[in-house]
Amino acid sequence: MDLAKGNVMESLSARPRISIIADGLWVAAPAKINLNLLVGARRADGYHPLDSLVAKVTLYDQIELRSRRDGGITFSCHGADCGPDEQNLALRAASALANGRKVPGADIMLRKAIPPGKGLAGGSSDAAAVLAGLNELWRLGLGEAELSSLAAGLGSDAPLFLGPPALRMTGRGERIEPVSVHPFVAVLWMGDLACSTAEVYKAFDRAGPAAMGSQLDVALLREPPSRWRGLLVNQLAPAAEELFPQLRQIRQEMAASCGLAVHMTGSGSALFVLCDGLEEARRVLDSLAERFRRECLLAGSNPW
């Protein structure tokens, strides 16, 4: 993705979740967007109750897994800001899966296209992809419940990436049920602004307890997005916009340009406009100012 030169990427093709390559596996780790995100007051355990409708989209990190013979695990990361290796959730996932088990080891190569600080959960997706891939590569035979338990220990969003293309996520993120969402194309703004999830939640807490309200009727999601996109809510958005007033300004300017609701995913900073199809998405993109358009990509729904 070359946003710096103003080239708009259309990342619309679904990819197989796991593919066999020489001496190993290739695993796709998709981004997600929160279509609707309700957040409750902080619990005694430090977590916030969530009720979110989530859809995976066709923007992927790529992970190569190759088996070793010495039980060791090596890790390399390239592309969008990877951060320190020891904090990378992909490596932590491999270590968690190997812990207490006799495994041959693995070489892990992560190529990142999902930038951090956008609310797209690239790190959590990488963790789930490594768990699923190494479970197969190492022939461990772990079931969905065991993998999901490991994923939950790595991050609240990680279990959802072991689930269906679209889902409702509740609890602190560990309870998942599938939902059906009409196919869509999202115009996804991913400027340089990065939001810290921890700081956004602190700002949310400072604002005082908020009523979570009622979740959107999931039956609506089977209809084209143009019939329900105006109803979407992200209860973290006011906190993110308090910390980053420029995010509010960007969202408002984009909405004024295209005449449609512009929403934030997760704790930010990525913004999106849901479109019924590619033709509408291109019209929305064309309506945006050049400074926004060059920081956008088009992503489709239902990668698997």
Description:
The protein is α+β, with helices and mostly antiparallel strands. It has two domains: 15-178, Ribosomal Protein S5, domain 2 (2-Layer Sandwich); 185-300, GHMP kinase, C-terminal domain (Alpha-Beta Plaits), CATH 3.30.70.890. Helices cover 26% and strands 27% of the residues. It has helices at 89-98, 122-137, 144-152, 197-206, 237-243, 245-258, 278-287, 290-293, and strands at 9-11, 18-21, 24-39, 50-67, 73-79, 106-112, 166-171, 175-178, 185-189, 263-264, 271-275, 296-300. Strands 2, 3, 4, 5, 6, 7 and 8 form a seven-stranded mixed beta sheet that branches. β2 and β3 (24-39) form a beta hairpin. α4 (197-206) crosses α5 (237-243). The protein is globular, with a radius of gyration of 19 Å.
Q: What would CATH call the class of the largest domain?
A: Alpha Beta
End-to-end separation: 21 Å
Question: Count of DSSP E strands?
Answer: 12
What count of domains describes the coordinates? 2
Strand composition percent: 25-35%
* Low-pLDDT sequence parts: 1-7
| Element-level helix/strand string | EEEEEHEHHEEEHHHEEHHE
C-alpha Rg, in Å? 19 Å
| Class of secondary structure makeup | alpha+beta
Residue-averaged pLDDT: 93
Helix percent band: 25-40%
**Most strands sheet:** 7 strands, mixed
CATH topology of the largest domain: Ribosomal Protein S5, domain 2
Provide the CATH architecture of the largest domain. 2-Layer Sandwich
The global form is globular
| Oligomerization category of the chains in this entry | single chain
Please tally the helical runs, counting DSSP H or I stretches of 4 or more residues. Answer: 8
